[in-house]
Model the fold of this input.
Amino acid sequence: MTKEKNQVSVLFMLFSILFCVCLITANVLETKQISVGNISLTGGLIVFPVSYIINDCVCEVWGYQKARLLIWVGFAMNFFFVALGALCDAIPGAPYWNNEAGFHAIFGLAPRIAAASFVAFLVGSFINAYVMSKMKILDNGRHFSARAILSTVFGESADSFIFFPLALGGVVPALELPKLMLWQVVLKTGYEIIVLPLTIRIVGYLKRHEGEDVYDNGISYNVLKIFNL
Done:
């Protein structure tokens, strides 16, 4: 039976849920600074790259249009979470409650950082999906590994180049910002490469199970056509 183009499968729905959970979890984990050797990072590095891997899987199997829906849903859910956290943070705590500082450290995201995070996520995610889609057409479906890695490089680079100057410009020394951005791109791309064998297996399973392997010939890449599936 041919699927209606405006329908989504159960697996796509599950991937969408996981995508949203990764974004929201990354927001919480970002509040912890961690060190790997002499490199200072944020805890969000543990989970945020997973969102790019999911983006790659969705774009490869279901196409750019489904990936566009995924990105906007993730953005909406993340915004909803951050907004509720900010609202709760603004409400005065009970007189007997003594965790105000800890709660504020996690949910009191500065508007500047929140705005930078949202813009960087949208731009990076759409660039990642666009590169995946175009390379699949140009390669005639071959070289999935190459497009998965290159799309991450382009997407993560855009994310870092937008987020760090907007969120930390004037706070972090100007000479340190390029180092932070470079390490983010290198480590997140390395993350993608390490889990690539698993990603390839997942993509293969999805294509067989769903009976889909979409090529985005003749589609609109307009990011605002959210429900054009």
Remarks:
- The mean pLDDT is 89.
- The chain has one domain: 10-210.
- The beta strands are 33-36, 39-42.
- Residues 10-210 form a domain with the Arp2/3 complex 21 kDa subunit ARPC3 fold (CATH 1.10.1760).
